[in-house]
Amino acid sequence: MPRQSVSLELATPELIAETALLMVDQEGCETLTFRTLAARLGIGHATLQRRCTDMAGLLDMCADHLAAGLPDIPAGTDWAAATEARFRRLYELLTDHPGLVALRGARPWLGRQLLKRLVEPQLAASLAAGMTPQEAISCYRRMYLLTLGSASFVDHRNPKGAQAATRTALAALDPEEFPVLTGHLAVIVSAVVDHEVYYQALRDLIHVTSPTKPGP
Q: CB of 96 within 8 A of CB of 142?
């Protein structure tokens, strides 16, 4: 069997993902191309393609790399506490890397690490706590969509810019036509980038969906 090239050995999925995320975080989404990433890694364009195939594959690799940072929840942890810990950490990972969230757009997050460290244990915990499969999946989807939506619709790379844009848009409104929006401008602008809005919404959702039946 021919020996694998040195460049391919060095281009591990971990290094590729870390370098791609660093480029997006520090230099912006537009800087991430196969050619620029290969040059940053010191490998050939073809070598990178062998690892990722295409841009979609690269973004999936980056997402799975992030998902490896989701917590391992000890067995026996209270359902509500475990659920909050899992989704809170997912939110933190997404808001720490908003460029990746923007690049992925509507692509589903179905990498092995996410399935292993979030989806499978969360569904298993819900079933063990007494939910039916339908209830467990519905509960998971609500929290997943809340988390992804909360991370996606604010530019967490530039919170001051997001607040400034909101302030400018609302300040241009006619107070007679939009009395609530113009009359509470400061409160609305402050809430735009307030992470506690998500955390409280997550806790509220956990509270209303908490299983009432004892586990086996």
A: no
In this prediction the pTM is: 0.84
Residue 99's contacts (CB-CB under 8 Å, 6 or more residues apart) are 21, 24, 25, 28, 29, 157
Burial of 161 (0-12, 13-18, 19+ CB in 10 A): exposed
Residue identified by tokens 């302030």 is: 167
Amino acid identity of residue 192, one-letter, is V
Q: Is 197 left (phi over 0), alpha (psi -120 to 50) or beta?
A: alpha
Produce one character per residue of 146-156: b if its CB has 16 or more CB atoms within 10 Å, e if not.
Answer: bbbebbbebbb
Residues 126-172 pLDDT 10s: 999 999 999 999 999 999 999 999 998 776 677 788 788 888 999 89
4-55 per-position pLDDT tens digit:
455 667 788 999 999 999 999 999 889 999 999 999 998 888 888 888 889 9
CA 115, 22, 98, 79 torsion: positive or negative?
positive
